[in-house]
Amino acid sequence: MKVVVVGGGVVGLSSAYELASAGCEVILLEAEACGAGASHGNAAKVALAESTPVPGPGVLLQGIRWMLKPDSPLSIRPSLAPGYLKFLLRMALHCNARDFEAGLDVHLRLGEDANGLFDEYQHQGIGFEMHDRGVLLAFETAERFEEHSRSLEAFASVGHLADELHGDDLLETEPALSERIRHGLFFPADRQIEPDSLTHGLLGKLDELGVKVREGVAVRSFVRSSDTVTAVVTTDAEVIATDAVVIAAGVPTGALLAELGRRLPIYSGKGYSIDYSPAPIDLRTSLTLEDTRVAVTPLNGMLRLAGTMEFGSRDDEVNDIRVEAIRRAARQSFRDWGDEPTGERAPWAGSRPMTPDGLPVIGSLGTAKNAYVNSGHSMLGLTLAPASAKVLADIMLGRKSTLSSDLLARISPKRF
User: Do the strands 239-241 and 2-6 form a parallel or antiparallel pair, or are they unpaired?
Assistant: First the structure.
């Protein structure tokens, strides 16, 4: 079977790898450079401990309160297009305890074998930088700690256990923290992956498997015969015949799916990251500063800070106010950070594909029997990419899925 995969981020690359490994002839099209978008600037974590869906009780209400605070962890820009307003209203309907718990269950079931899948990638000769430092969720207040702790039973259901730490025990685990951080949950199983190395490793393996990767090639339209896509047409008028098409293009997925007759609510949630090389401080583990929603990830020769969620942005320009909020979180949370540490690289901003219920969209479109989607992973693209690719390949190739029919229905595009 000949398959065209549209999108060269970690989800698209993983999808191409899974299909090529199963014997498909794969062509991958990427409008820019593979791994250059959200896959490049993410928090560099296999973050099962942080797999709660974005819509949760009180999330949008908090966002509305923060609208006039430009450095808040969550920002909702008031001047929005009608489609985005509808998206936010749909998200508001999912900001309740029942949908939050159901969404967390989907993420945990989909990602419970993430570490094993990345180990398998390396066993198959895909080279990339990976660490097993675990992750420490760090809290300033008992209130935020207790709020997060309510979900611990769900994490434990997939064997993801946390150590509760308070006061001096917390600082003994991570001495770099300042005294203002008083509570913590340490998940020892979480990993860290340098995302550019994963992109390069996957591209190398795809080349070995004979996958044709075309960078700088955007899709203009699709050729259909009745209920079947027969070809993909690029913006330079090249016609690529195909037996199936997979749209895994991040935020642009929504517009591409509209060309296939299916409108799905996939919109941008903008995030930021800052790299420091060399690292300003030595850390024993990776962390997330939960009160400010800033991830802190040590990698080889560098440290990455990542954070914020910005709804309504129409570009990837860097907002200096939001970047400074990330810097301030580090200054306040680490005892030896300093006012202006050396080694800071240019800040990055990028758009992550969000859905109103916070869950990915994986499966058949329904408008064409050979058109599929794998997108909408919000901040969990790196964590869920290998499992999502396997689920998609199972659906496309008629293999028995490891997910139940109920879970498949909850991530299906038909739910919209």
Answer: unpaired
254-293, pLDDT tens digit by residue?
Answer: 999 999 999 999 999 999 999 999 999 999 999 999 999 9
Give yes or no for a contact between 45 and 383, defined as CB atoms under 8 angstroms apart: yes
Q: Extract the tokens encoding 24.
A: 């498909």
Residue-range domain boundaries for the chain: 2-39+197-266+360-415, 48-97+127-192+268-354
Answer left, alpha or beta for residue 136, where phi above 0 means left and psi between -120 and 50 means alpha: beta
pTM over the 0.85 mark: yes
Q: In Å, how far are 17, 194, 294 from 298, measured between CA atoms?
A: 28, 9, 13
3-state secondary structure the chain: CEEEEECCCHHHHHHHHHHHHCCCEEEEEECCCCCCCHHHHCCCEECHHHCCCCCCCCHHHHHHHCCCCCCCCEEECCCCCHHHHHHHHHHHHCCCHHHHHHHHHHHHHHHCCHHHHHHHHHHCCCCCCEECCCEEEEECCHHHHHHHHCCHHHHHCCCCCCEEEEHHHHHHHCCCECCCCCEEEEECCCEEECHHHHHHHHHHHHHHCCCEEEECCCEEEEEEECCEEEEEEECCCCEEECCEEEECCCCCHHHHHHHCCCCCCCEEEEEEEEEECCCCCCCCCEEEECCCCEEEEEECCEEEEEEEEEECCCCCCCCHHHHHHHHHHHHHHECCCCCCCCCECCCEEEEEEECCCCCCEEEECCCCCCEEEEECCHHHHHHHHHHHHHHHHHHHHCCCCCCCHHHHHHHCHHHC
CATH architecture for residues 2-39+197-266+360-415: 3-Layer(bba) Sandwich (3.50)
d(CA 39, CA 295): 15
Question: pLDDT digit string (tens) for 336-382?
Answer: 999 889 999 999 999 999 999 999 999 999 999 999 999 999 999 99
Structure tokens at 349: 């901003």
How far, in Å, are 161, 298, 350 from residue 181 at the CA level? Answer: 21, 19, 29
Measure the CA angle with vertex 42, ends 387 and 266; round to 5°: 65
Architecture of domain 48-97+127-192+268-354: 2-Layer Sandwich (3.30)
